[in-house]
Amino acid sequence: MAQEAAGWLPEETLSLWKREQARLKARVVDRDTEAWQRDPAFSGLRRVGGVDVSFVKGDSVRACASLVVLSYPELEFCLQVAKQNSSSLPSVCQPFRCWKQLHAP
């Protein structure tokens, strides 16, 4: 745990994250699939949402994830979900160090 808190991750964790990153990359859709995406007015789009994950300051384990959904185009509140949880992700305060580890040659 102290090793992770310092920003250094076990090779097993890095390997797992690299495999997961490759799996998710293969699922990325890089083209418009819905009619509203091709319409400059976005007609047909009904909801928009945003997600955020924040860690407790100074703690690379406890995090809070939030999802907010709004109607479109009115931008009226529809839904909010928040969950506090423990995570094995690195602290967002040290992203460059973790990025360097993930992308090292």
Automatic annotation (TrEMBL):
GO terms for molecular function: RNA endonuclease activity producing 5'-phosphomonoesters, hydrolytic mechanism; single-stranded RNA binding. InterPro entries: Endonuclease-V. It comes from the Eukaryota. Pfam families: Endonuclease_5 (PF04493). The keyword GTP-binding does not apply. Its main location: cytoplasm. One of its GO terms (biological process) is DNA repair. GO terms for cellular component: cytoplasm; nucleolus. Keywords: Cytoplasm, Endonuclease, Hydrolase, Nuclease. It is found in: Cytoplasm. PANTHER family: ENDONUCLEASE V (PTHR28511). This is Endonuclease V. It comes from Rhinopithecus roxellana (Golden snub-nosed monkey). The lineage of its organism: Eukaryota, Metazoa, Chordata, Craniata, Vertebrata.
